[in-house]
Amino acid sequence: MARWGMVIDLDKCNGCQACEVACRSENNIAVGGPQAASEHRTISWMQVRAEVEGEWPDIRSRFVPQPCMHCDRPPCTLVCPVQATSIDREGIVNQIYARCIGCRYCANACPYTVKFFNWHKPDHPASTEPGLNPDVSVRPVGVIEKCTFCSHRLQKAREMARVETRPLREQDFTTACADSCPTGAIVFGNLDDPTHRVAELSRDPRAFRLQEGLGTEPKVYYLSRRD
């Protein structure tokens, strides 16, 4: 059984935000516009956050891409009264939009602030509709949205492997953010398969996870910058 996870090398990330743009295009994420931005109601499943370390004048900045952590022990699943958010047997934390009632308990429980409430009805002009991904739903107003590790891509790869009567291979599938990263900073795969590169990188001496002390066991690892 797979346990899907991700490794992001902060030494390679240059903050270009290609991952953020690819995620937005792949998953039909609506653009909020100036009004939504002024109200802090924009949606971005993958966020590239800038952080500053040290004290002036000895400071260093770094970029930290942050998707959903897909925790092994996700607090968001414990508080949802209708089980709209749940973790599947392969470790992906799913969001069932048709079941979501918009109470936002899960967003409040998430310590990584990677869940977004859809405040406005998605506005996709007719000229952009042909560019929407038919494999991903367009969410209605009033639900929580989040990164899904591009599970629709994974499902396609599974179906192709089944048609060809072979096991799923590492090169069959990756997320949109990893696919678009020009520096190869993002690696996706099966954390429990030692032949997958992501499993090897997760054991690197530079590897760490955000807020590990909380006990949520995130499946997104980071590689710290080299001095």
How is this structure best described in words?
The structure is a single chain. With 227 residues, this protein is of the alpha+beta class. 21% of the residues lie in helices and 20% in strands. The chain has helices at 18-26, 33-38, 76-79, 105-109, 151-163, 176-180, 197-202; strands spanning 4-9, 47-55, 58-66, 85-87, 93-95, 116-117, 144-145, 186-190, 207-208, 220-223. The strands form four sheets. It has a four-stranded mixed beta sheet with strand order 8-1-10-9.
Rg over alpha carbons = 18 Å
Structural category is alpha+beta
Total strands: 10
- The overall pLDDT, averaged over residues, is 92
Beta strand %: 15-25%
- What is the CA–CA distance across the termini? 37 Å
The level of helicity is 10-25%
* CATH class categorisation: Alpha Beta
| Major β-sheet profile | 4 strands, mixed
Question: What's the CATH architecture?
Answer: 2-Layer Sandwich
How many domains make up the 3D coordinates? 1
Quote the CATH topology.
Alpha-Beta Plaits
Shape call: globular
Low-confidence parts, pLDDT < 50 over ≥5 residues? none
Task: Give the count of helical stretches.
Answer: 7
Order of helices and strands: EHHEEHEEHEEHHEHEE
Biggest sheet: strand arrangement = 8-1-10-9
